């Protein structure tokens, strides 16, 4: 499977390694593409912050955190969620086993949600 157009080095590398290691359904390929694009964005944010002052003067000259720090934190959290959606943790699982695991996980999350009220 060919890498999507526009990926930068981090995204292309992750795409190549993942496609070489796993057979994917179409929905997983879409999540993989989003993951790769987010890896590229994270790399750009890290490069922007590398050596930059993390504290900047605000409108009243008060110190404020560089806006890219928050974006980086949110992007890393989103990356974790996307990677969890890929659920390639156990390559030995069959599609049926994977579906059963997702169904069990969904039931547990629903139980936790409704019992918290």
Description:
With 117 residues, this protein is mainly α. It has helices at residues 9-21, 26-49, 67-86, 95-115, and strands at 55-57, 63-65. It has a two-stranded antiparallel sheet with strand order 1-2. A hairpin with a 5-residue loop joins strand 1 and strand 2. The protein is flat and about 50 Å long.
Inertia-based shape: flat
Beta strand %: 5-15%
Radius of gyration: 19 Å
Number of strands: 2
Number of helices: 4
Taking strands numbered 1, 2, ... along the chain, how are they ordered across the largest sheet? Answer: 1-2
Question: Considering DSSP H and I runs of 4 or more, what fraction of the residues is helical?
Answer: 55-70%
Largest sheet: 2 strands, antiparallel
Low-confidence stretches: none
- Counting copies of identical and different chains, the oligomeric state is single chain
Order of helices and strands: HHEEHH
Alpha-carbon distance between the two ends: 45 Å
Helix/strand class: mainly alpha
Mean of the pLDDT scores?
86
Summarize the structure.
This protein is mainly α and 117 residues long. The protein has helices at residues 9-21, 26-49, 67-86, 95-115, and strands spanning 55-57, 63-65.
List keywords for this structure.
117 residues, two-stranded antiparallel sheet, 67% helix, flat
Helix and strand arrangement:
Layout: H1 9-21, H2 26-49, E1 55-57, E2 63-65, H3 67-86, H4 95-115
Antiparallel strand pairs: 1-2
Helix pairs in contact: 1-2, 2-3
């Amino acid at each position: 499977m060919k890498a999507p157009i526009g990926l930068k080095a981090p995204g292309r590398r992750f795409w190549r390694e993942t496609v070489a290691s796993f057979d994917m359904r179409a929905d997983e390929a879409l999540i993989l593409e989003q993951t790769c694009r987010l890896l590229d964005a994270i790399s750009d944010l890290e490069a922007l912050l590398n050596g930059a002052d993390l504290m900047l003067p605000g409108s009243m000259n008060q110190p404020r955190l560089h806006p890219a720090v928050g974006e980086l934190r949110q992007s890393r959290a989103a990356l974790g969620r996307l990677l969890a959606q890929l659920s390639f943790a156990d390559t030995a699982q069959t599609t049926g086993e994977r579906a059963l695991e997702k169904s069990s996980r969904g039931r547990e999350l629903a139980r936790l949600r409704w019992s918290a009220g």
